[in-house]
Amino acid sequence: MPVVVVDVMPKPEILDPQGKAVQGALPRLGFAGVSDVRQGKRFELTVEEVTDEVLAQVAKMAETLLSNPVIENFTVRVETTSEIVAGANA
Amino acid sequence: MPVVVVDVMPKPEILDPQGKAVQGALPRLGFAGVSDVRQGKRFELTVEEVTDEVLAQVAKMAETLLSNPVIENFTVRVETTSEIVAGANA
Questions:
Q1: Burial B46-76 (b: 16+ CB within 10 A, else e)
Q2: pLDDT above 70 for A53
Q3: ipTM of the complex
């Protein structure tokens, strides 16, 4: 069954302590070259079929339940795997 | 500057109480038609440039810092906005 993905990220002007913690840990682990890290949430919703109506419903869910619109932005998209360049699915 | 996205999701065989909580809340809010919800994390890493070396570095970060490989899978990809069908960026 198709999967609709909702990504919820802190707005750019909102402080993101989790992201900053990750960013601070990277050099200590020997990783360089990352100038910023933002951490958010990813929801995978399994639906019967992908129609405009379903996507509108999911956008409504994202707005009312999955995100806090005061401090977070969200995006809704249909899952694709084409652009994945690396991963672990062991 | 380019953004590399790391998505970290609980493995399919791992219980996901956060996702189940969202799934349970949806009918109570009047939303139907979602048969499963999984909740994970999304990291946006700002890098100088996207090269194979940088992507390999990010995959290493994902494996060692951003995910717990025992219970989570991750994917690394370069940010694209083409497939977004809805969102709020207010």
A1: bbeebeeebbebbbebbbeebbeeeebbbbb
A2: yes
A3: 0.90
